[in-house]
Amino acid sequence: MDLKQLNAFIAIANLQSFSAAAKTTGLSQPSLSRLLKQLETDMGVLLIDRYNRPLQLTEAGRFFYDKISAVLTELDTITSMTQRLSAPSTTLNIGFVPSVLYGLLPEIIATLKQQRSHLSTDIDVNLKDISSYQQIEALKSGEIDIGFSRFSHKDPWIQQILLRHERYVVALPKAHPLADNPEQRLIDLANNRLILYHQTHLPGQIANSSASSKTDGKAITANTETEPLLHLFAQYGITPFMTTKVSDLQVALGLVAAGEGITLVPASLQTVRTEQISYQRLVHENVTSPIYLHTLKDFVHPRIPDLLSATYQVYERRGITYRRQHFV
């Protein structure tokens, strides 16, 4: 069994066709057929049923495909990490979710560059708008070196630290009856259309936790809702009357500005569309959006400690409470 045989099997299984797999791999159909036959002979197992069109995996083939795909993905990750370890890039590639860009990220990057200039050492920074979920694979592939995210991830290749919690505010149309109320409660917002914009849902272990909250003096246990905004309402035993799902945060705020509903956003976004939108504070202290920083466990880009230092400098200037951490 060798990598050529395994890659040939994966290509054939994915495309369910020798001819399509030949075009993708650059091998001839006879070569692919020979590699697959050698693999099956070595294992003593029939992996693909050649008598069906499109080609079908046998039961053993499905099991082998699931397991070997994970192994090959891990091998690709190891190869990429080894190459980066031997020749680290001078550019720091930073992934971020849009809500972080509206917050302190620009100030952090400016502080980072200023910090390095004092040491007569230039630093190149490349910023990439990428969702929390996509950041994990981007870290493994080397597309980014570090990511600012709103969601916790559990992955054997990834380490992360919690930078801070940011309070949510409610975004309401300027003409809304509650637009001038400086202290909002979720229960008072439940009869509105809630606009949902997150593309990443909460991990199951977080949504299924029995974290309890208090409303009107009563403890409420969160249900298993994984959509982030609905999860916040569920913590208080509340289900919004109506919801609308949109593609991103900007669209959500556009609908709020048009009077089509309300939404909750991190406080750093309350400078967006202020002519049409009223942002008001929520009284619930635990209705927050975390900010995580994550990178690979086995390869930390040499500029990442500088980025973390710049982040904490900005927090100190802004009077933001945080607990200093570092990557190992």
TrEMBL record:
Keywords tagged on the record: DNA-binding, Transcription, Transcription regulation
GO molecular function: DNA binding; DNA-binding transcription factor activity
Residue ranges of coiled coil: none
Gene3D superfamilies: Periplasmic binding protein-like II (3.40.190.10), Winged helix-like DNA-binding domain superfamily/Winged helix DNA-binding domain (1.10.10.10)
Domain HTH lysR-type intervals: 1-58
GO CC annotation terms, alphabetical: protein-DNA complex
One Pfam entry name: LysR_substrate
Family, as annotated: Belongs to the LysR transcriptional regulatory family.
The name this protein goes by in its record: LysR family transcriptional regulator
Origin species: Psychrobacter urativorans
